[in-house]
Fold:
Amino acid sequence: MIFLIVSFLVSMISASTPLLIAASGELIAEKSGVLNLGVEGMMLMGAIAAFATAHATGSTSLGMLAAIGAGMMMALLFAFLTLTLLANQIASGLALTIFGRGFSALLGAGYVGIAAPTLSKLNIPILSHLPVIGPILFHHDVLVYGSFVMIGAIWWFLNRTHAGLILRAVGDSHDAAHATGYPVLRIRYAATAFGGAMAGLAGAYLSLSYSPLWAQDMTAGRGWIALALVTFSAWRPLWLLFGAYLFGGIMFLSLYLQGMGVPIPAPFISALPYLATVIVLVLISRDRRRIRLNQPACLGKSFHAAA
Amino acid sequence: MSLINRRRFTAGLGAGLAAAGSASLIGKAEAAEPLKVGFVYLGPVGDFGWTYQHDVGRKQAQAALGSKIITSYVENVPEGPESQTVFAQLAASGHKLIFGTSFGYMNYMVKVAAQNPGVNFEHCTGYKDAKNLGTYDIRFYQGRYVQGVIAGKLSKNGVAGYVASVPVPEVVQGMNAFLLGMRSVNPHATLKFIMIDSWYDPGKEGDAAKALIDQGCDILTQHTDSPTPLQTAASRGIKAFGEATDMIKFAPHTQLTAIVNKWGGYYTQRIKDQLAGTWTSDNTWGGFHSGMLAMAPFRNMPPEVAALATQTVADIKSGKNKVFVGPLTDQSGKIFLAAGQTMDDNTLSGMQTLVDGVEGKLS
Structure:
């Protein structure tokens, strides 16, 4: 029994990590007022960039760097369209996802069916050998630990730093922030780029660790789940962490139950994360004040500085 | 995205690119006079799975018949009205024999075949035919039985795991055949399965593999297309089987064997028939005996198990072992195929009953 629970938790952590990484980047972008629906496309570009680079150089670190770069390039393209050219964010984000799916498939055509180096597990002296806790918490790859550090840093940044306050101000009222003298567009460019970098890194986790290979469309909707997560968490980092593990846990638990002979229809499992988001949205929208407190008021709105 | 079959699924995968430029790419393989043969593919030829194997078959036919034929292919053709245009175009441009390799082309092929009585068509995995429209498919379950025999020999606790896609008859046949293969050498063997609701989702395939291993399965097989379950098995130190093509390079010390789809011989024969003027509409459901199904080399197992597997292939090939032979009992213990009877192809192709020993319900 203990073995079952331990191995369940280990698997749950690896299923939740890509969601957490991608969602933490999108959280920052949305906090600055930019709604980028291109997460799925940026993740795919990150996944192929990481895989191709790791395959060519044999280095997973370079692969992760390439994924960050690829995600950022995609995000900057989006930022140029929506922030500089004032294109509609929803439409541009959807376009970015469609573009990312197609372009990553084109770049990846030659990488289907080959193997590349995978991220190795980091063992921490003493801690990794602790019974029960060791394998659950201290036998993962660098991105799993990194995702925890990142979400903690984001919480600290948003709630405890001056820069975080400015970012939130830009997201809540770009006119006020502009009038106060803050460079709204530059801040949004930076936040969007960070979102892209994290999405790329989440893609790298998929192609270097989670399912170490390149396959067209290998994200299989995880970018959309990450987007749903940000809303699910009502833009709060610690809830985001909880939500990522809840979603990862639910998805994995349902597979577990099926293997134990509990008849759960597979399409229902596929729908679960979205269903959970809808339920949570219904629950939190009963308290409109809470939403207004946390949702960036300028989310998705274009900013054009009046001269 | 809930998908009925892999042919349709691959179309979904390609959607990003395919939708844009699909029907325009006709690859000319060779420039000579004679018979023009067309192939219509659902995915890209580089998918390293379903479409890839068909294209390997096309190339073999081209190589075998040389300058007597010209083969062309159109890839990334969705299973909608677009496919009708592609078939009509191929017929209009002088192709006399046209192969469609995806289930969803069925109704469009029926229409185009009716409009082009002078052209012969062949539809893979379909069930509608006409005077100039035949069908062909592979008995994949034969290979799964062989896997089951190997698993029955190698599994220590007699519990195997099956990463499954969607509950269509082909998958039910596969699970049943695997279990029957296991039981032929270990009467107490059982099979657990997980349906992931997709033919191709590397992440979920890996998760399902982990869940099965956690629950005590010490050997894995898969009815989904990515090598992730195999990789997962490798990282957990157990043995597993590959799917559709030899996946040995993904798990050199883990893959026992894999089912390999072989279309080349069939294509060559049908094109020869067309050249000789003896082509007639036919429903082919080939297997080991017709060379349409093969097993990747038996590796990572003791020689006596490999010998038994080789013998099993030979028995199925010779017809001595017909796989679905009574008595077969369902999960409730009721006999649904009486002792000594062999299941007929009609019942087999619509199979929805799990045999006793497969754990879990179809949902």
User: Anything to note?
Assistant: The CA atoms of residues 258 and 264 of chain A lie 6 Å apart.
